[in-house]
Amino acid sequence: MKTDYQEAADYIAGRTEGQKPATAIILGSGLGALADRITDPTVIPYREIPHFAHSTAAGHRGRLISGNLAGKPVLAMQGRFHYYEGYTMRQVTFPVRVMKLLGIKNLLVSNAAGGINSAFKTGDLMIIRDHINLLPNPLIGKNDDSFGPRFPDMTRAYDRELIHRMEEIAASQGIPVKKGVYVGLTGPSYETPAEYAFYGRAGGDAVGMSTVPEVIVARHAGLRVFGMSVITNEGYHFADDFVNNGDDVIKTAGRTADKMSLLFAELVSGAG
After folding, report:
1. Is residue 160 classed as helix, strand or coil in its secondary structure?
2. What does pTM read for this prediction?
3. How many CA atoms within 13 Å lie on the side-chain side of 199?
4. Model pLDDT, residue 166
């Protein structure tokens, strides 16, 4: 397996002319606009990278972009892989270990999520301070000690310094942000009203179908992680005519993408 990761890393390094970014970004549903801010881009479709899966979800372009953001070299995934697409957890998290081999130290993740907390409104940005994992754990199986320990600590899955820095950035830009717990589910069906209520009582503030596996593997490998969700619907309030709609999720995320892009760019500019 290590050979597969190394082959992918070597291919990417060869295509990016030896650029060595410290920060990588995973862009979720409808949030690919941040890629437009990357200058001098090298664009690599996932299908060209050895052992990478193909992104089939709506709103995911399926491209790896290497370039500069806010004056810093970055690597950005314009679209991710999901367990509900039929991929194994190893396939879902494969890019994160490739990032580790490429020298990435900071991983920024974004997603579109349903709001559980009644204080959240459609279009809000939520800094992820913690998560509840209801997906299969991607570390199940034989541990690869070259990446990390058998039992990695998850008490600080989301880096407190990066969270604090983002709060300062958001305040300076006049962009309000929430902070909360993300619940990771398998999907692909959206949650029932009873499930939304259940996850809220369990401590969740927003719910989605991604992110958590990538974060677990990133922390296992020693990467610092920052996460942010766009709240794309209000799962705590169900009017008679309310239905969850995937197209609406992407549209809402797209309308918020500029604000998130600005915040992420500022965070990258100060990342070590």
Report:
1. helix
2. 0.93
3. 28
4. 97
